[in-house]
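Dear support,

We are seeing what looks like truncated structure output for some complexes. This example has two components. We would appreciate it if you could run it in full and send us the complete token output so we can diff it against ours.
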Amino acid sequence: MRKMRRKGLASMAVQTAETATNTTNPAVDLGPAAALSCRECGHKVPLGPVFACEECFGPLEIAYDFSAYDADELRKRIEAGPANIWRYAPLLPVPADVATKPNINPGWTKLVQADNLARELGVTGGLYVKDDSGNPTHSFKDRVVAQALEAARAFGFTTLSCSSTGNLAGAVGAAAARAGFRSCVFIPHDLEQGKVVMAAVYGGELVGIEGNYDDVNRFCSELIGDPAGEGWGFVNVNLRPYYAEGSKTLAYEICEQLGWRLPDQLVVPIASGSQLTKIDKGLKELIALGLVEDRPYKIFGAQAEGCSPVSTAYKAGHDVVRPQKPNTIAKSLAIGNPADGPYVLDIARRTGGAVEDVTDEQVVDAIKLLARTEGIFAETAGGVTVGVTKKLIENGVLDPSLTTVVLNTGDGLKTLDAVAGTGLTATIRPTLDSFREAGLV
Amino acid sequence: MRKMRRKGLASMAVQTAETATNTTNPAVDLGPAAALSCRECGHKVPLGPVFACEECFGPLEIAYDFSAYDADELRKRIEAGPANIWRYAPLLPVPADVATKPNINPGWTKLVQADNLARELGVTGGLYVKDDSGNPTHSFKDRVVAQALEAARAFGFTTLSCSSTGNLAGAVGAAAARAGFRSCVFIPHDLEQGKVVMAAVYGGELVGIEGNYDDVNRFCSELIGDPAGEGWGFVNVNLRPYYAEGSKTLAYEICEQLGWRLPDQLVVPIASGSQLTKIDKGLKELIALGLVEDRPYKIFGAQAEGCSPVSTAYKAGHDVVRPQKPNTIAKSLAIGNPADGPYVLDIARRTGGAVEDVTDEQVVDAIKLLARTEGIFAETAGGVTVGVTKKLIENGVLDPSLTTVVLNTGDGLKTLDAVAGTGLTATIRPTLDSFREAGLV
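Here is the complete output from our reference environment:
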């Protein structure tokens, strides 16, 4: 074990597994969450701020006890709940009274019936855009941070932290501000000024690290193992098992908004791959609980060509994902070594889906297509999913006669540069003659 | 009367009043909207694309027939409605089936119980922020444009248009895209690139006018009177009576979200003053309909010092508002000659409220205060209302022991420049030593 301490992630695993044994409090109330379970070997440990299995170093995830639920009662309870993710509190690692605690209450974003886009793409079976730009800080990150916050409360942490290059920093800053936590977010020191402002405005500590995003991550791992990091909840590291569960709410909302019905096909972006795997988990839970019919669905993963390790592995028929050095405008998806890549491959293959990628040019075209047809201004990640949907239809992989849901996980206002080429149709003098000359009538 | 014809707005009034007589269709279905009624002289005309009284040039507004409503039934109908403004369709100038038509479905934004901010400001009676940054294009403009769109449909218009310097352009572009309307938006040709992109991405015509905002407005007025503008609905000109009603939904939502209760005090931003007057109208309607208790409420108006014509008139005890040349970072409120200024003065005085203004520095401080305490990143207009609330409490004008609702009408991502000074707390090397040296432990 001592040898592995020098190996980044593995060293954290060991450190945190030790912590688990020492600090886990049987009195921790995280609702139906019963334990942490290793995704690889099934080994179980009590709920605590740990994220990797002490036996095999596999990722830990939440195991629930849903045995007491009756489908009809649960459906009614959810429908009577608040218009945010806490309507699903019975299915999340949070206490039952979570909705009464101060947090920014994300979720219950619009599922837009995208008839205009469907016409353009030739989809006849019903096309929907799940538009997560409607979250408080305008990305799906609010969903996951909200879970990490509850875990942080349960474990007695007082500082909320993360490494980030954008969306996550704002989500953590806002959530911490409202919940009365200190926040300390680490970013590369040379991030664009706009992104720095979006993260800094919430008043937490915002620390620039002289180095790239990998250096930031490595530093955060060291901090978790150091006394200086005591009392710190890193949402995407030592609170990751809780954090990741937030993505399940996307699956829940989509099905409820479709009238407690599974979509036939979903197109989901891939960064670390966590979101896609948790959407699959959420759908399987709804089936197991009897909240939706038990029938097949297909999950399609979407990447940008400039960071397409999972798509490349999928097309090559590999089970292993080879890391890439990202080079794409879809920066919120630019994870070259996606932790959940193998699980994504498995889900895409098992459900009859696929993984596909599009060029940056296709991303920009897709952002404009979605805006022009549905009035939704998506982040580059939304351009990736819409672009991949188009490509999959053109290639005959996605069936246009089936109900399809496409995710937009963020807001175009955060990636204005991607469409900076968009501008005025015409410039005229303030006269009717000039207006007519421009051919605008 | 003839003399007034030469005075811009008045000349449009005459032109459009004539149009009214010619084009009004008794078959127009705009739900409970019964007629247009002059706010000054009470003269009534049939529903049509007109906005000024043919008798006295006063502004026309919607007169409703609510006589068939029973309070309990109406309340239940609203509560069973969709999670957007169309839950209030029975109180708006829209057809009963409006929710089935394609539009971007704004509204039902969060009413945030702002306990942290309340503590900082010393408010003990309950403080709430109505956060309209949650709308589809992230400002309250989506509410008003949605009404104008329905009027445009009813009158057979095929192009949606407006003059704008920002928020409105995006709201019109998005609404038109989704509804399948052509859009043509006029802006000053030298607008910041970011704002141009936000408006252009929806794919409508975006025309730069060589001139300032006044030139743009003047040109739009000419276009309405010209054959080239036939079939065009200018949301904030010939559709203004319908458009303006959208602001009533803020009042409805606030009361419903408080449990069908009136707040004691509201702090509302003033640009043209239309929003404040329509919020008052909405509250009065709820009282008249028996949906809330009949008891007093106070409305406070908020301006930026650099554009404070209404505040100046209020403090001087005047009934007339003297125009100002705007010079403030709160550009979405920078209307130097607010059309509804006199009505705002009347409402503030009648309800026992007030009108106050804050400096740009106070606006920035208030944006940061709201972000730091509640995790809400507001537009400069939100900085104005929060800043004015703080000032009114300090001056003993606003009673901190009463329930108070403060409006945030837009999103901080649209006015990043205002807080551009916000940045990194520290820059460190990626080592624990460097972290400790920075005093961050």
